[in-house]
Design brief:
26% of the residues lie in helices and 32% in strands. With 179 residues, it is an alpha+beta fold. A hairpin with a 5-residue loop joins strand 3 and strand 4.
Length: 179
């Protein structure tokens, strides 16, 4: 007959749980999406502010530059490369303004896919509406439309940060005016 005696373990219960995957906070694509949306919204907002006067991009002490760099892991090649490009735009006398839509960037996170405990990729659609002007405010160029993108986010400590942003075909992106 099977034993009805409860089994007990003599192993001490003081061993710490592994910190890599706490069971109480199972990470899912859906659970991560709001954090990614917040990162992308913050990115759009601070980039638009920097581009209004891209000369600030060469000043590491500038508040906007600090906000921008705070969205990325320390010493991010991507972030520093973008700042260098924007500083070059300022040197070339190119300044950015919102186009007819009223905002330079309006991004929507379409999906988030985890690639492990500390990395995920989001598919993003961005509607751009940009006017590039010279230092006197005269229009030089306009940019607009729907762009697709992939955003790689990584976990650093308890925070999710941007690692890379790359353009991708906007195949799954709704067009302005689509409902």
């Amino acid at each position: 007959a099977p034993s009805t005696t409860p089994t007990t373990s003599s192993a001490p219960s003081t061993s710490p749980a592994p910190s890599t995957s706490p069971p109480s906070t199972a990470l899912t694509n859906e659970a991560l999406q709001p954090a990614v949306e917040q990162l992308v919204d913050s990115y759009d907002a601070v980039v638009a502010e920097i581009l209004t006067d891209p000369s600030v991009a060469s000043d590491p002490g500038n508040e906007l530059v600090r906000q921008y760099l705070g969205l990325f892991p320390q010493d991010s090649t991507f972030a520093n490369g973008a700042l260098g490009f924007w500083a070059g735009e300022a040197s070339a006398g190119r300044f950015y303004r919102p186009g007819p839509r009223g905002v330079m960037y309006d991004s929507t996170v379409q999906s988030v896919e985890l690639r492990g405990e500390a990395e995920a990729v989001a598919k993003v659609c961005t509607v751009t509406s940009i006017q590039i002007v010279d230092s006197a405010g005269a229009a030089l160029e306009s940019q607009g439309g729907v762009n697709g993108g992939e955003v790689v986010v990584v976990r650093v400590g308890d925070d999710w940060l941007l690692r890379d942003l790359t353009e991708a075909p906007p195949d799954d992106c709704p067009r302005p005016g689509d409902s």
